[in-house]
Structure formats: structure tokens, C-alpha cells
Amino acid sequence: MRIKALQALFWLTYDQFDLARMEAVAQEAMELGAEVEIGSGLAASLRIMLGTRAWVGGDYERGKELLEESLEISRKADDKVKIAEALFQLGGAVSGLGAIAREKEVYEEGIAVCREIAYTYRLPDILLSLGYVYLLEGDYEAGAALNGEAIGLYRERGNRGHLQYALDNLGWAALLQGDHERARASYQESLVVCKESGDKLIASESLEGLACISGADGEVLRRVM
Hints:
This protein has helices at 2-15, 19-35, 40-56, 60-77, 80-96, 100-116, 123-137, 140-157, 163-176, 180-197, 200-216.
């Protein structure tokens, strides 16, 4: 029961980007897991926790190793939820290593698994992550389509946790395609969600996007808010 409680605490610290606390919680959970007999699902979850802490902290190789271990355990157990979770985090690890082709493969598999089991909790997160990769590659239509689908899923379930990310991505896709009206609408909605959630990072990116629109439209002195 304590390991399960530590799992919940870990993801709270993850949302807060508290690296020190993430490390302590993940290590305690792993140590407890070594003392008792645990199932494959929990073993996979513990490696996801440690792997996530590793790559978020910049140790991409270690993160990749642990997440691939989790994938192997989950595939043997045919645990599709754990497979999807491991793939989502693995995408971040391989991205940090600059393996863009592998990153796309990982996210594409993650999307396929989520669709197969109707796992709508993680599906929008993977959609927006892959969409962002396409935006960086200059495929704005594909990037917009994936982020648009993610936005629809976030709204359907009433969870705004990462809605601002997808809205900001959609804004950049529209801006880079020259659709300033659609870009402005996406950025403005992103700012509303950011204000509600206290997300200053994405708010700054959306404000930058609005400033770019004003500059492109010759309104260099216009206030964006």
C-alpha cells in the first residue's frame, strides 16, 4: 500500500517539476519493491518512475534504459496501459538524445496502443507530443491535425491539464502557415487556460506568438493583452 501511495506522490512531484522529491520518492518505492514480491505491473511502474526522473533531470541514457526495461516487462505481461505509459516517457528520453526518427516511432506506437484499448487518459498527451515533432520538422498540417485532436480529447474529458500545450502548438502551426486569425484565437485561449492553471511557461510562449502576429501585421506598438 505504501508503494502505491508513493506512486501517486511521485506523479504529483512530477507535475510540480520537483526533481529532488521525485528522486527520493522513486528510490523509496524501488527499495520497498525489492523487499516484497510484486507483480509485473508494479515492477513496470517503478521503472517508469525512475526512468522518468532520469530523463527529466537530463540523464537521457539512463532514462531510456529504465523505460525500455519497463516496456519489456509490460510486453511480456501484455499490459497495454503500462506499454502506453512507458512509450510516452520513452519519447521524451529519446528526444533528449536527438533520435528524432526513433522518437516518432515511439509516439506512433503509443498512439496505436492507446487507440486499441481506448486509453484516452494518455492519448492526447502523446498526440500533442508527436504533433510538436512534426511542427519542428516543418510539417505544419500534420502537427496541427494531431494537436487539434488532442484539444478535442482534453475538452471531452474535462481535463485541462495539458490543454494549453496543445493550444499553443496549434497557434504556432497556424502562425507558420500564415493564418493569423486562427493563430490569435489559439494563443488567446491558451492564455486563458494558463491563467487558470498558473502555467507561466506556456503563457510566455503564447504571448510571444501574439507578439509575432502583431509584428507581422505591422502593429509593432500594439499591446497583445
